[in-house]
Amino acid sequence: MKIFDGIRNIPYEGPKSKDPLSFRYYNPNEIVDGRSMSEHLKFAVAFWHTFNYDGSDPFGMGTMQRPWSKVSNPMDLALIKVDALFEFCEKLNVEYFCFHDRDIAPEGGTLRETNKNLDVVVEHIKDHMKTSKIKPLWVTANMFSNPRYVHGAATSPNADVFAYAAAQVKKALEIAKEVGASNYVFWGGREGYETLLNTDMEFELENMARFLHMAVDYAKKIGFDGQFLIEPKPKEPTKHQYDFDAASAIAFLQKYDLSEHFKLNIEANHATLAGHTFQHELRYARINGKLGSIDANQGDLLLGWDVDRFPTNIYETTLAMYEVIKNGGLHSGGLNFDAKVRRGSFTPEDLFKAHIAAIDAFAAGWKIAHKVIGDGVIDEFVSKRYSSYKRGIGKDIVSGKMNFETLEKYVIDKDKIGNISGMQEELESLLNYYILNFQS
């Protein structure tokens, strides 16, 4: 049975196309630098927002019109959504998807019952994978929705909750191995605090580290060799989450001897909630060797919460892809659209249009960034800006020959020190030139 029967397979029609159900900039088969664009970008569909989001908000009921809306049996509904996932990805020509354990199957009365539900749905996923190229980019466990996680999971003050979370991740890791996921993500949605008056921060961080070490050990035991990823976010649902941003996550990994096992899954909207740009978080992860994967969305700078909009800002996608190309790609990671359509975009067709717009935005951004890097215009400017460290006193500083006494002797009688312009406006104008002319 076709679920999206009125939607054809989405074609590439080129930049002059006015059909919203076609790609203008993303040609998955186009070869650049010896690889197809689909290999460079590795787009993924997020199961939760695409198939579970009903459009409700704190002020109103759900608005989404979905072919499965009238299915009442939870397990029947779970299986139909898997069917919808594979049909959606195949029509969109996207090869990857991502899911939480609780996205794909309903919870039972006990963990044993819940795991049985998962087993049924996972078998259905595997049946689809036998005849489809679609596969999981990453798997994770939802340890934030159920009331048991009101005070956190690995950082909960309740040892029974810690134990339950461990068992849940154990099962999720087994599923990740079973379906051949390339990565496993930890997002600490409630691993944080509301007030320090009732929080032993040091103990909670130690417990989170214990938990992650257990996960590493179990992955080795069962032979799951996917990349572990931490996804930073500063707040919401808790006031302060321990993986606040890339810097705090990397510091945590280094302190607790987890660095060799983990990279980061950077989300655009989480970056802006932390007071950073998307490019900043990508750059920080990249220069520390920790850029593993991306949750591709965008926030609304006029709203202070995680709106998870589909990304359509080519300026931002260009700067993001600049970091990805400088990183040598995302390796086992990809670009997961952790994004939802607006409440007013409620038709199944809107789901396709939103993904197409976002895919095109990143494809265009990648091509622009590739041209900028190839021409070397930014690298050349940055190199010149720091050229004083390639000769004379600067070269001696970098080589370790200088100390405070010798540097004081060098400057003590200088009556003038000159700087050169940072030329920020000129560089921004240059980037605009590349964006506006990338198809010419």
Structure, described:
The protein is an alpha/beta fold. It contains 16 helices and 12 strands. The strands form 3 sheets. An 8-stranded parallel beta barrel has the order 3-4-5-6-8-10-11-12, surrounded by 4 helices. It has a two-stranded antiparallel sheet with strand order 1-2. Strands 7-9 form a two-stranded antiparallel ribbon. Strand 1 and strand 2 form a beta hairpin. The mean pLDDT is 97. It starts with 30 loop residues before the first strand and ends with a helix.
Question: What attributes does this structure have?
Answer:
single chain; 440 residues; alpha/beta; two-stranded antiparallel ribbon; 12 strands
Give a brief outline of the structure.
With 440 residues, the protein is of the alpha/beta class. 45% of the residues lie in helices and 10% in strands. Strands 3-4-5-6-8-10-11-12 form an 8-stranded parallel barrel, surrounded by 4 helices. A two-stranded antiparallel sheet has the order 1-2.
Write the layout of secondary structure elements.
Elements (H helix, E strand, L loop, with lengths): L30 E2 L2 E2 H5 L1 E4 H6 L21 H19 L3 E5 H4 L6 H19 L5 E6 L18 H20 L4 E4 L5 E2 L7 H22 L4 E4 L9 E2 L4 H10 L6 E6 H6 L4 H10 L3 E5 L18 H13 L8 E3 L10 H28 L1 H9 L6 H8 L4 H8 L12 H13 L4
Helix pairs in contact: 3-5, 5-6, 6-7, 10-11, 11-12
